[in-house]
Amino acid sequence: MAALALTAGLSLIGTPAVARSDDAPAATKASDVSIAADTYTWKNARIDGGGFVPGIVFNRSEKNLAYARTDIGGAYRWDQSGKQWKPLLDWVDWDRWGWTGVVSLASDTVDPDNVYAAVGTYTNSWDPTDGAVLRSSDRGASWKAATLPFKLGGNMPGRGMGERLAVDPNKNSVLYLGAPSGNGLWRSTDAGATWSEVTAFPNPGNYAQDPSDTSGYGNDNQGIVWVTFDERSGSAGSATQDIYVGVADKENTVYRSTDGGATWSRIPGQPTGYLAHKGVLDSATGHLYLTLSDTGGPYDGGKGRIWRYDTASGAWQDVSPVAEADTYYGFSGLSVDRQKPGTLMATAYSSWWPDTQIFRSTDSGATWTQAWDYTGYPNRSNRYTLDVSSVPWLSWGASPAPPETAPKLGWMTEALEIDPFDSDRMMYGTGATVYGTEDLTAWDSGGTFRITPMVKGIEETAVNDLASPPSGAPLLSALGDIGGFRHTDLDAVPDLMYTSPDLDSTTSLDFAESSPGTVVRVGDSDAAPHIGFSTDNGANWFQGSEPSGVTGGGTVAAAADGSGFVWSPEGAGVHHTTGYGTSWTASTGIPAGATVESDRRNPEKFYGFEAGTFYVSTDGGATFTAKATGLPAEGNVRFQALPGTEGDIWLAGGSDTGAYGLWRSTDSGATFTKSAGVEQADSVGFGKAAPGASYRTVFVSAKIGGVRGIFRSTDAGASWTRINDDAHQWGWTGAAITGDPRVYGRVYVSTNGRGIQVGETSDSGGGGTDPGTDPGPEQPADAACAVTYAITNQWPGGFQADVTVTNTGDAAYDGWQLGWSFPGGQQISQIWNASHRQDGVKVTVTDAGWNGTVAPGSAAGFGFTGSWTGSNAEPAAFTLDGQACTVG
């Protein structure tokens, strides 16, 4: 293949941490948004983890600088001060949702401000966009990117191998990327701005997990899987000459270049019959270590080895900790202690039962010890203690018989890294969390070391459904892989996921509107049951019976008073029951696979939708009648009935090739009217009405006015306000959305890999004043105010700040102007949720119109990016309309 140069297609536009491309649709640019915007703050409903972490990368030249990658939920940077992770890719938009899958990360040892991410979720048709290499010169605060002419697979088989992306430790303008799908080895010589194929590299790989799979998933060639430099073969500013590359080819899994990548050859004498998941070089000893498995992982692997290559003599040696006949797993996680040459660790990533295993050697692999040993089957002795009190659900509520334990040491443990500056700190990823220790060397002295979750800030769940009852817990969630939670405190990790029954993934849940203690959930499981009921708002559960033929959860609906339920499971048609599912009766008049919901006022009324037709039952789900037609016949469609009003239904969904948008019915689905101006919509939900408003707040994940985002309406859809911004997009958000019926403006948004996003508004109303309330006089001349000014991000020459203005007086503002002087000569470059002018160091910021009215006790906020030189001190004083404000 001829070399193909790729230009850097993206540059920073708008708010920080937002990548843009010159081929991006204009509608994605904040400057084109004609819809009003509101000042929202966003956070996760805390779960902590919940998904696979296949990669952890420490920078080798700066202490405490580390990154983690997830398969569908973006990348994170470690924040040592808070001992938590900071998300870096929340700016990824709807059209490029695949960029939330991170196949590899690389941190620059020459300039630690530089970090790179190779992104793309699937290499087959499931992901509509090509992959890209993102690059940041401010540790992920902002990004540029080069789009590749092929796809990358952050959620494909083999995703735990790596790292596929590497920066030359001597000449950091040189990077290499191992590509999947037979696309070979790629190189950049301009710090990731452009890329071309290394045509001299002889082997693009040939291993596929399942060659018989025709979907493009299991039969994809896993390609080039890691790149490792021997930094001893270069010098500062000169390219490293010795480069090692791992290939998904069981007979030819390691290649080397000794001339800076000009030529390549298979290393003779290497092990065969295995794939090298990792290749790590201990530069102090000159040993290259390989962890090998007979498959690509992350789920499979029945045999494995560890080999050592002496780069000086060319000798290979099998240094595996156990005999090949005794392995029932493959090896993957691999790290060397940069402070203690000859010390290394490895994981048995696919040892699912009874537990994963971690091995450690202090003599270059000559001898090993392991994290746990049998003391006489089935009893075991652990070299560690595992404390999950900060994330208690990691116990899964299990009480297994030995040799299993709860919580487990892990599974899918393909990422393990010893801190290059601290021999006592080690982190490793599992299929559900990041574990770590800060007293690792106790292992060598015969003591025990303490493992705890080091996962705070990583929120990696895929969200299928959300519910916010009018009483009880504020939020109930239906999640992939870990079932879901009853969230009594949005800022605290729940004690345990739903149990009794245990469902692998919860696909749908509902509560009785007038009796919110009654809750039902359904989901996927290897065997029955697939349904559970609760009478105490989800605190405790009991399993129900199910119709014959059920294979999956589907959707479920609870009658408004909890007197009955309608269930549309996979593998069986729609069924209904009274009571708690002791017996089910097939519903008539509605096709199998229909989505079902309940009327939120009339307990006898249920609704269904399938293939463009809306169905209604008025007898508790026994019989359905086809009503409105002409609705979206393809694509995902979701609908909700308005609480408190019979027959008021909102329906969202469709596809680009057919009908797509938002519809409303006020006659129980007999007719629907399409909402003007809503070009696309994918989920809809309701929250508390704005003060003075007569209709509940409507929330949608939609495209309105050419802009994709999360929108709110306080006037029954007559007008819409965008409530997220370009820094908070989270890829795909189409599964579920709901407001909180108890807190105006609060919204819960589903993501596919970034957990549950919680939005809180600074807008005190938006719907006028309460009836009969005197709004008081207009803004007085002696307005009282308080200002907080916070620098939320800073990098060399630039920064981001958020400013909040609180009305501490007793009368509402009717428009406002805030003034200050910068002490360090800072210059504002871009502002949002306000406008500004700057004359030298003097700044005047004016409200955006929609946020000009600020009630007593309420606040308005805005943010901006700016430049600085010398210092970036905060302003000491602020004035509002010429009057001094309190600062703090």
Automatic annotation (TrEMBL):
A Pfam family annotated for this UniProt entry: CBM_2
Boundaries of every CBM2 domain copy: 778-888
Segments for region (Disordered): 755-781
InterPro entries named among the record's database cross-references: BNR_rpt, CBD2, CBM2/CBM3_carb-bd_dom_sf, CBM2_carb-bd_dom_sf, WD40/YVTN_repeat-like_dom_sf, Xyloglucanase_GH74
Domain of life: Bacteria
Keywords: Carbohydrate metabolism, Glycosidase, Hydrolase, Polysaccharide degradation, Signal
Chain segments annotated as transmembrane: none
Signal peptide bounds: 1-19
Family: Belongs to the glycosyl hydrolase 74 family.
Name listed for the protein in its UniProt record: Cellulose binding domain-containing protein
Record organism: Streptomyces salyersiae
